[in-house]
Amino acid sequence: MDSEDTSGSGNTTSPANIPPAAIPPEVAPAATPVAPAATPEASPERRGITVRSAPRFVPFLILGGLVGIAVAGVVAYALPGDASYDRNSVFGFFLVMFGAGGVILGAITALVLDRLSVRRARHAVVESVPYTKDDA
Predict the structure, then answer these.
(1) Angle 57-73/87-119 helices, nearest 10 degrees?
(2) Are 46 and 127 in contact (CB under 8 A)?
(3) Each residue of 77-127: pLDDT tens digit?
């Protein structure tokens, strides 16, 4: 359906009614896309990407848990304790506390390093390569 002029002036040559091919490129508004001429090979698509080196979280969590287990062992067996408690039960108690604390500290460390990697990110431009059967 063609758009009709509802202003009552009878002007049917408004810019909305002129096909884009009839407008010279130097007069065309900035919002009007100008289609490139058709070529046998299409030009590759270019796209901007962000390249950064982000840390993996799981190794930080595991390392934090192992450090917490080591600290629990030092607290339970190397330090003097109350004779009414068995050292193994003291180790189990501290294992839960320091193990969880170590995992939390490992996660915080990974998050801080991840935030720093966002600041050091680099921007690059990549272009797509069309797939052909000869590539397979």
Answers:
(1) 150
(2) yes
(3) 998 888 888 989 999 999 999 999 999 999 999 999 999 888 888 888 888
Q: Which of 110, 100, 122 is nearest to 54 (CA)?
A: 110
Nearest CA among 51, 46, 60, 59 for reference residue 126: 46
User: Within a 10 A sphere around the Cβ of 60, how many other Cβ atoms?
Assistant: 20
Rounded Cα distance between 65 and 122, Å, is 33
Closest CA relative to residue 29, chosen from 41, 40, 16, 38? 16
Q: Which two tokens stand for residue 126?
A: 């990549």
**DSSP code per residue over the chain:** ------SSS----STTTS-GGGS-TTTS-TTS--PPPP-SSPPPPEEEEEE--PPPHHHHHHHHHHHHHHHHHIIIIIS---TTS-HHHHHHHHHHHHHHHHHHHHHHHHHHHHHHHHHT-EEEEEE-----GGG-
86 CB contacts (<8 Å, ≥6 apart)?
Answer: none
pTM of the full predicted structure? 0.56
